[in-house]
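Session log. Operator J.P. requested a structure for one protein chain; no other inputs attached. Running the standard single-chain path with token output.
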Amino acid sequence: MEAIGSTSVSTARALWAPTAERIAKTAMAAFRSAASREAGVSLEDPSALHRWSIAHPEQFWPLLCKHVGLCFVDPPVEVTSDEAMPRTRWFRGGTLNYAQHLLDGVDDSATAIIAVDDDHRTRTVTFGELRAEVGRAAAVLDRFGVVPGDRVAAYLSNGVEAVVVLLACASRGAVFTSCSPTMGAPATIDRFAQVDPKVFFVTDGYWSAGKYHRSDAERLVEALPTVQHVVCVPGRDDVTSAFPSWKDVVQTAEPALRFVPLPFDHPLYILYTSGTTGLPKCIVHRAGGALLTHLKEHRIHCDIRKEDVVFFQTNTGWMMWNWLVSALASQATIVLFGGTLFHPSRDALWRLADRLGVTHFGTSATHIHSSLRIDMRPREIAGLDALRCVMSTGSPLSPEGFEWVYSAVKDDVHLASISGGTDIVGCFMLGDPTRPVYAGQIQGPALGVDLCAYDEAGAPVIGTAGELVCRRPLPSMPLRLWNDDGDTKYVETYFAKYPGIWRHGDRIEITPEDGIIVWGRSDATLKPGGVRVGTGEIYRALEDVPEVVEALAAGKEDGHDVAIWLFVVLRPGAMLDRQLRQRLSNVVLKRTTAQHVPSGIFHVAALPRTHSGKLMELAATHVINGRNLDNLSAIANPETLTALAVAAGVTPPRSLGGSSS
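Structure written below.
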């Protein structure tokens, strides 16, 4: 099979390149040397190592396990089963425990967690304290009669207790699932009610931007009839809950920390898709797959080391939270941020990173683009001396976003734009600390990932946009979807277009630098006049217009054709007059093609997003064409959809209170 490795001539300018000394200290360099010895040939070239990792999975995956310290209790008898995707099974016969890898082998006094609340007050938890608290929570699960395979749900903020519950579940083989309180009751019920939890850990409220919001704990419990035990984690000390408290239930228990050896494919947690057009899909992830994938991505691709301090702007309803927690397996300190992005100031996160000595700072492309638009310059208010890596995800990071990091944050830093998804609880493509960084490009595919861009005929393409596909199985691919007999929905979702090959739903372009540009979702591709237009191409063009904070393009159906309608959020003081409309059209025409130019441009105050902050282009398309939305609870701010319809002069569908069918 072909692997990424272009023969085209590169004309791009590198924004950053590591020194030879820095490269020599990386885990990636050490792994290349180990792989070279295993293969019996030199794999010092990044492309050569990647080609070997996909061509020889029977050598690559066991070597990876050994190199990153994944330890089996019982040794496996094979690497993969003979079944094709999606029924491939991994490391049959091997047993391990996810929680044990995150908790064992670290000095009791080492810092495991720094929890930060909405006012940026910190709480530090050592590994010794974390082990004790996990042991107490596991003892409570034992008392509640939880056995391997039982589901335990957590409706908790991004704090210590959420991590404790996850690790307690993993220690015993219970299946963990979580939602952030910011999602609200309806969206949470849509998720948890499908998986029949036995135990429910719930908060009675949370803080956001200095304000306290009560959660509807009683409503949630009533909507989950399978729940037998409820434990409340108070959001504030002066509020009394109707349910037993964490302090009374967990902190009074005697620690009983033990780790049940479980198969590599044993379910670890259930994550959820956004559920834009129906109930969210419930994705079951295997313990060994998540652990091995995160160890690879953390230690080798991000160069996370013992005692590093890792921050990611996330919450318990987004897969990046699960990804962050696994950094404990690298003996790093994780920062759990329970606050709000721009509270108490716009530069609050950068000041926090400086104060805590963060080595790896993870955030969203939206945050970076917002910081760029307001001309924020973190390097002028924070030293950021410890910072080695900035990670960006959630949506494509523009070339201007890349350049802003190096001009406004730090010039000697590894900027790792990463992309994957809830579907694989990890990355298809991400950073490489030994390679240059080019503006607008993810550095390359993850090791072991047979990533490719396919054209409409299913042929690999380089230098032009195509469908993101993965041609070989990965251990982090879902074990199954919940309540999906015969894997029917699983196959329809990922394997219908290219049988036996995973189609992810993103459009990507492989560059001459062997990098990857993400152009957006495939379902956001529009076809005005029958020509394929990616919305990401329009958004990139608009980066040249300082008045535009963000934008959303959707397709307005016009008979047998489709017109592009563009919705823009403008900087304070900017006005969408005739001159600005013309300038927007001219910029899009100059940077793209005539087919990309919108036929309608409308000003709105905000754009619709999922609970993890992603633009909801498909929902906007439904609304401007008068089609009902099946699941409004999947949308973090559904009022913006009504505003889109009003701005465009169309009647909202009935699901938004309008009269359209």
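Operator note: The first strand starts at residue 14 and ends at 16.
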